[in-house]
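Saturday, quiet lab. Running sequence design on the structure tokens for the scaffold JK sent over.
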């Protein structure tokens, strides 16, 4: 969303792809004719990527590995010097050509396409990212501290955040991503 705001503000032609039609409608309402929204399908991704100067892959599967939506076969068709930023790299990346890079050596070029796949991107701005994370999570930590984990998990937002409890994986995406058995959190009480 922030990348979209900045790009629109700079006068760029912005295309956003998503599988959530409600979210695409919200973005259409917010930005109007300044952006194009498309349902995320292999065909639409390929058409958008081939024309792009900059592609930002921000797929998120909470606790799980990301699907490889940015295909290696797109690279030869893309503009020379185009940039692919894989924000999903911490979850395995959403590009077949992605590999983790660091802040010290952040880019590599493959078939003329610049790849930026830095793990822990927020680490580039540690103070700001820590403040943002604290603002988003402090209330949950305080609730757990005040009530204890079991009682705090009456709050569905906290219960969803428990990945492991009593030595069992209670997050299906994490269990599936690592080949372990999943156990429903509620069944452990």
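Result came back. Writing it out in full:
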């Amino acid at each position: 969303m922030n990348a979209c705001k900045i790009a629109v503000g700079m006068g760029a032609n912005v295309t956003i792809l998503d599988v959530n039609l409600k979210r695409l409608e919200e973005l259409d309402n917010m930005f109007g004719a300044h952006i194009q929204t498309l349902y995320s399908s292999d065909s639409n991704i390929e058409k958008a990527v081939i024309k792009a100067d900059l592609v930002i892959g921000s797929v998120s599967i909470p606790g799980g590995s990301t699907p490889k939506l940015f295909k290696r076969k797109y690279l030869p068709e893309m503009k020379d010097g185009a940039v692919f930023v894989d924000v999903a790299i911490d979850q395995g990346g959403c590009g077949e050509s992605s590999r983790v890079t660091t802040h010290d050596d952040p880019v590599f070029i493959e078939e003329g396409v610049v790849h930026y796949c830095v793990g822990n991107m927020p680490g580039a701005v540690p103070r700001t990212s820590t403040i943002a994370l604290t603002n988003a999570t402090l209330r949950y930590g305080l609730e757990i501290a005040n009530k204890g984990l079991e009682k705090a998990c009456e709050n569905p937002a906290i219960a969803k955040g428990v990945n492991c409890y009593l030595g069992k994986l209670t997050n299906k995406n994490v269990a599936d991503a690592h080949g372990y058995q999943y156990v429903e959190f509620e069944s452990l009480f």
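Notes for JK: DSSP finds seven helices and eight strands in the chain. The helical segments are 2-9, 21-31, 42-51, 126-147, 149-152, 156-160, 172-178. Ask whether to fix the surface positions before the next round.
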